Amino acid sequence: MKKLTVLKSLVVAMIVFLGFSLTSCNDERYEPIPVKLSDVDGSYKARLVTSQGNKFNEKIIEFQAKDTIITFKDFPVREIVKTIITDPVKADTALAHIGKVEYKLEYTSKINASQNLVELTFEPKTLALQIPVDGVTKNAVVKLAAKQKGFFVGYDWSLRFGLEAEKITVDGVELTPYQTIKYDVPISVKN
């Protein structure tokens, strides 16, 4: 009988001890690491969603951010070329001749400490392309714009932004009718 009482007392003491040890865990809170402007720098792999009207295309792209410039070694120009050249076979031939197109997107940044992110304000430059079709080279100038700010989010260390090809001019003549081409990067992660 005495052994049973001692055993019960030990079990009760153990349960009380475990209860107190688990409640101490409730006081710990997540403290995010504050972002710095230099945190934006790095190589990224991103999901790019390209849309024009009701047509959508998704693909994985890579780019680098360094010293207030995002560099695309292979900027996606497929939709631009297919807007200029409506024949799909000729457009694919032109894309093969053009190859990879490098584009540099400049930005300014500022820290938003209350939300633990870096806000990016973009300053897109025009994109010039020489498109070979039917033995002639067409000179295309694409006016790119950024309607919204981009964000480097401190919570998951991702970069998010979007661009639009607002207007395309071919050999000095503006394409009309024209549907805006949107490039959205809803999420990108550092490599």
TrEMBL record:
Range of residues in the leader sequence: 1-24
Superkingdom: Bacteria
InterPro entries: DUF4840
Keywords: Signal
One family name in Pfam for this protein: DUF4840
Designated name of the protein: DUF4840 domain-containing protein
Higher taxonomy: Bacteria, Pseudomonadati, Bacteroidota, Flavobacteriia, Flavobacteriales
